[in-house]
Amino acid sequence: MKKPILGCIADDFTGATDLANNLVRGGMRVVQAIGVPNAPLDEEADAVVVALKSRTIPAAEAVAQTLQALRWLQAQGVQQVYFKYCSTFDSTPAGNIGPVTEALMNALGCDFTIACPAFPDNGRTVFKGYLFVGDELLHESGMRNHPLTPMTDSNLVRVLQAQTKRKVGLIDYRSVARGTEGVRERIAKLRSEGVQVAIVDATSNAELVAVGPAWADLKLVTAGSGIAIGLPQNFGLREGDAATAARLPSAQGLRAIVSGSCSVATNGQVLSFLSGGGAGFAIDPLQLAAGADLVQQALDWAKPRLAQGPVLVYATAEPAAVKAAQQKIGVEQAGALVEHALAAIARGLVEQGVGQLVVAGGETSGACVQALEISRMRIGPQIAPGVPWCHARSPVAPGGLHLTLKSGNFGGPGFFREAFELLA
Ligand SMILES: Nc1ncnc2c1ncn2[C@@H]1O[C@H](COP(=O)(O)OP(=O)(O)O)[C@@H](O)[C@H]1O
Ligand SMILES: O=C(O)[C@@H](O)C(=O)COP(=O)(O)O
Fold first, then answer.
1. Which of 217, 283, 285, 340 is the most exposed place for a label (fewest CB within 10 A)?
2. Where are the domains of the chain?
3. What is the pLDDT of residue 214?
4. CATH class of the structural domain 254-423
5. Residue 245's pLDDT is what?
């Protein structure tokens, strides 16, 4: 069996499907594993994405899980390693992007790598080391209010330098504009100055494809999903047959949405779904903290409604409500209570016959996928940039489950309805 050439480690589950989606679109056959598999790969693939839930756990634990994933990928024979994090560089001064990058560099004996969250298809661009989300600088975007990783500085050289002892530099837009040669020269210069990790400016897909060959010699790349579109060419692969890559079994079962993201985009999607007449049940973290059995209440509420169309169970709230809950019960406790409840609800909904499930939010997706005991997913058609439908086997859904893990920030206002329309 041909060995996979690219081994990817994603720090959350929505991010993993985002990366897998871009690799598939670039022409790679991709297998996505949930957590580190405990057996060798038993199907042919060009790339394997191991999805971890390591973005916001203590740095030492994130490092340990990542190194375990690395060892498994190395045992499968991969030639290059890709550490995938969020296109909004979600992290804190404690990590986990810096510590995980450092640990991977140490383990791979690698003295230079890149850090490039640019994802132009979703408006994430990097210019002079500053990350933009659409037309706003990162720290002026909704990310400044993220419940777990508020981003308050847009200068990625500074943000990453606070998380690592390795010297951080910049492959700036002038070098990128000169293509692979320009980038190679810049890397040589940075190396001579002792830089070991370089943020990469990029504002378009064309640039990411043009400079892709410059990453061919690196044992490790670290990035959002954007640079994935420039990597398959390094392995002699060309843009994929999207129809073949996207073929999934036909969809069955009832339809539901579980949303724990509090991003601007998800707030808009929840509002649009509800104002369009969709049925919704709100989960309040304060009631959870007071011991209310909202899981059972939500499942009882959903049962008679599922036959009429998709139902939505959501903890999604505006920043003021999130802050108020966090002040009363603590940031971690609020996050954990909500994730735990939504995961139990996702499982309960599937037990009630849901076969098409949309989950909104990275951490939320991690919790739901774990509750559904999913170990592997196939990537299907793209609903919106960075968000494909997937097909998963789960002991809770013996016939298989269509699942989409939506990054909080991705998708337009009509995403929930568009997702189901695409499957129908
Ligand atoms: N109403 C709320 N109050 C406080 N925390 C919340 C609320 N709703 C959701 N959360 C938590 O906020 C976090 C959102 O993160 P995540 O699911 O990764 O979304 P995103 O993809 O937008 O980052 C989760 O830990 C979730 O449990
Ligand atoms: O790169 C991205 O923006 C996404 O793939 C991603 O990582 C999503 O994370 P969440 O916003 O926490 O869902």
1. 217
2. 6-244, 254-423
3. 98
4. alpha beta
5. 56
15 and 261 Cβ atoms separated by less than 8 Å: no
Give the residues surrounding ligand 2 with Cβ less than 6 Å away. 12, 14-15, 18, 86-88, 119, 224-225, 361-362, 386, 407-409
Question: Of all atoms in ligand 2, which is nearest to the CA of residue 119?
Answer: 1
For residues 55 and 148, what is the distance between their CA atoms, to the nearest angstrom? 10
Tokens of 279: 């049925």
CA dist 274 and 262 (Å) reads 16
Nearest ligand atom owner, CA of 8 = 2
362 ligand 1 Cβ < 6 A: yes
Give the amino acid at 25.
Answer: R
pTM of the shown model: 0.93
CATH classification number, 6-244, choose in 3.40.50.10840, 3.10.690.10, 3.40.1180.10, 3.40.50.2300? 3.40.50.10840
**What contacts 90, CB < 8 A, 6 or more positions away?**
55, 56, 143, 146, 148, 149, 151, 362
Ligand 1 atom at shortest distance from the alpha carbon of 407: 21
| Residues 226-244, mean pLDDT to the nearest whole number | 80
- What is the pLDDT averaged over residues 306-326? 97
Query: What pLDDT does 365 receive?
Result: 95
CA of 314 to the centre of ligand 2 (A): 18
The CA distance from 259 to 364, in Å, is 7
